[in-house]
Specification:
Blueprint: H1 8-11, H2 15-23, H3 26-36, H4 38-43, H5 55-58, H6 66-72, E1 95-98, E2 108-111, H7 113-130, E3 137-140, H8 151-160, E4 163-166, H9 172-182, E5 186-190, H10 191-205, E6 216-220, H11 228-238, E7 242-249, E8 253-259, E9 266-268, E10 274-279, E11 294-301, E12 312-322, E13 333-339, E14 344-346, E15 349-351, H12 353-364, E16 368-376, E17 383-384, E18 388-394, H13 401-416, E19 420-425, E20 440-442
Parallel strand pairs: 3-4, 3-5, 5-6, 6-7, 14-17, 16-20, 18-19
Antiparallel strand pairs: 1-2, 7-8, 8-9, 10-11, 11-12, 12-13, 14-15, 16-18
C-alpha cells in the first residue's frame, strides 16, 4: 500500500482500532487545554478528564461551535490577538490564518511549528488520496493565501513532491494560457470554479478545455461533487479521467476527507491528528459509523497547540456510503449532503438546497443547463409556508415548458416531500461566479442581481 497511501500506517489501520488509538490521546490533550486555554478552563471544570477517552465520559464534554470561537476572539488584545482561544505565546506562533468569513466574522487561527507540520501531513494525505503524485503538475486556484486553502494547500502540494503552479487571483484568460503552456494536469479548486473555468478556458484558448493536459479535477469547499451529473459534466468538459472530492475546515484541519480512485465517497484522511465523531444533530447523541448512517461531523484535533478546539460541531451533514473499499483504506466512505446553515424548512419538513438540485439533475439533466437557485425573501429566511421558489436554467427552450415545470415539481415532492414552484429561465440567466455559487439568494428590490 506504500505507493497507494501517503500514510499507510494510519489509513489502513482497522477503523475501530484507529478510533481507540485516537481516544487514548484525548485525555492528555484535554488536560493541557484545561490548564492553558481560557476558553476551555471553565468548560472542562468538573469533568473527570482522566477518563474522558471512554465513550460514556466523552459524551459529557461540551461541544464547541463557530459562534464560540468568534466570541472567544471578540476581546482579543495586542498581547493575546487570538483571544481566549490562544493557548501559546505569540512568539511560538509561526503562522496565522483566517476563515474565509463567508458566513460571518472571520476567525483567526495560529499555528506553532508542530501544528504547521501536522497540517502539512494531513493536507498532503488528502491530496495524495485524491490523486496528486510527485509527477503531477498542479494548478492551485485559491486566490487568498491567508485562508486555509491558500498557503497550507500550496505547502502540501510541494510536500508530496508535485510541481505547484499557483494561479489564484489571475484572470481566467491568463490562467488558461499559463496552465496550457505548462501542461498542468491536475486542478484544485471549488466545484463551482472547476465548472466556470472549463467554459472560460475554452473561450480563452479557442478550443475546448478537454484539449488541454488537465486530467485530474480535485474540488471541495461546497457540496455538489458527489452528484453524478456534476461529475459527468466536469469529466466531459475537461476530458478528465479522475474527479475527486475533498473536504476540510480551517477550524480543525484543512485536509480531512478525500476520494480515492474507487470513488463512491470520501475517506477520512486526518486520522493521525484528529478524532472524528458522527452525532445526531438534533440531540447530540452518538451515531455509529454504519452503512447509510446520517449525522453531523464533530471533530477534536488531539495534537493542536496554538488554537485548539474540542468537539467542534462542523454543521456538515454526512451520509456513510460504505464501511469498506477495495482501495485498502479502512475509514468509512462518506458524502457531505449539506450544512445546517443551508437547511430550509418547508412547513414541517427539513430540506437541503443541494438535495433539491440533486433531484433535478438526476432526472432532468437533458433539459437543464445546471445552474439553479432558491429565492428567499430575506437573508435570514429559513421557513417557507408556500412552495419554495426554484429558478432553473434551461439547456434549451423546451417543447412544452408547462409540462416540464410540472414534472420537476412532482419529482421533488415525491422524493423529498416538499413543494417547490419552478421558474424556468433561459440559459445564462443565473450568474455564475469564480468561487462558490450559492444555491439560495435574495432578489434585490430593483431586480435580479
Amino acid at each position: 500500500m506504500a505507493d497507494q497511501c501517503f500514510d499507510p500506517e494510519i489509513e489502513t489501520r482497522p477503523w475501530p482500532e484507529l478510533l481507540t488509538w485516537q481516544r487514548d490521546r484525548l485525555p492528555g490533550q484535554l488536560s493541557r487545554l484545561a490548564e492553558t486555554v481560557p476558553l476551555f478552563q471553565e468548560r472542562l471544570a468538573g469533568l473527570d478528564i482522566g477518563q474522558a477517552g471512554s465513550p460514556g465520559a466523552w459524551s459529557a464534554v461540551p461541544f464547541t461551535t463557530k459562534d464560540d470561537l468568534r466570541a472567544a476572539q471578540a476581546d482579543a488584545g495586542p498581547e493575546q490577538p487570538l483571544g481566549a482561544l490562544q493557548a501559546v505565546p505569540m512568539a511560538d506562533v509561526v503562522q496565522v490564518l483566517a476563515s474565509s468569513g463567508t458566513t460571518g466574522t472571520p476567525v483567526f487561527f495560529g499555528l506553532t511549528e508542530p501544528d504547521r507540520q501536522a497540517w502539512l501531513h494531513s493536507i498532503a494525505t488528502m491530496f495524495f488520496t485524491a490523486g496528486v503524485r510527485p509527477t503531477s503538475r498542479v494548478a492551485l486556484t485559491t486566490g487568498m493565501p491567508l485562508v486555509a486553502g491558500g498557503l497550507p494547500y500550496a505547502d502540501a502540494v510541494r510536500h508530496i513532491g508535485a510541481t505547484l503552479v499557483w494561479v489564484g487571483g489571475q484572470t481566467p484568460a491568463r490562467t488558461a494560457t499559463i496552465l496550457d503552456r505548462l501542461g498542468v494536469d491536475t486542478f484544485i479548486g471549488t466545484a463551482s470554479y472547476a465548472t466556470f473555468a472549463a467554459a472560460r478556458f475554452g473561450e480563452a484558448l479557442g478550443r475546448p478545455a478537454a484539449g488541454t493536459a488537465m486530467r485530474t479535477i480535485i474540488a471541495g469547499g461546497e457540496p455538489g461533487l458527489g452528484e453524478a451529473t456534476i461529475r459527468d459534466q466536469l469529466a466531459r468538459e475537461w476530458g478528465a479521467a479522475r474527479i475527486s472530492e475533498i473536504m476540510g475546515l480551517g477550524d480543525v484541519m484543512p485536509g480531512l476527507w478525500a476520494e480515492c480512485p474507487e470513488g463512491g465517497g470520501m475517506h477520512f484522511t486526518g486520522g493521525r491528528h484528529v478524532f472524528v465523531e458522527l452525532i445526531d444533530p438534533a440531540d447530540g447523541s452518538s451515531v455509529p459509523w454504519e452503512d447509510d448512517a446520517h449525522g453531523e461531523a464533530v471533530y477534536t484535533p488531539f495534537t493542536r497547540q496554538a488554537t485548539p478546539v474540542v468537539r467542534f460541531r462542523s454543521r456538515d451533514h454526512l451520509r456513510v456510503q460504505s464501511r469498506r473499499c477495495p482501495c485498502g483504506r479502512t475509514s468509512p466512505r462518506i458524502r457531505c449532503v449539506g450544512r445546517t446553515d443551508d437547511m430550509l424548512i418547508y412547513k414541517a419538513m427539513n430540506v437541503f438546497p443541494s438535495a433539491i438540485r440533486e433531484v433535478v439533475l438526476d432526472e432532468y439533466a437533458a433539459h437543464v443547463a445546471g445552474p439553479m437557485r432558491i429565492r428567499k425573501q430575506s437573508a435570514t429566511q429559513v421557513r417557507f409556508d408556500d412552495p419554495l421558489p426554484l429558478e432553473v436554467e434551461l439547456a434549451r427552450p423546451p417543447s412544452d415548458a408547462g409540462a416540464l415545470r410540472q414534472r420537476i415539481e412532482e419529482s421533488i415532492r415525491e422524493r423529498l416531500r416538499v413543494r417547490v414552484a419552478v421558474e424556468l429561465l433561459d440559459r445564462g440567466s443565473i450568474p455564475v461566479g469564480e468561487y462558490k455559487n450559492a444555491l439560495t439568494y435574495v432578489r434585490e428590490e430593483t431586480g435580479r442581481p
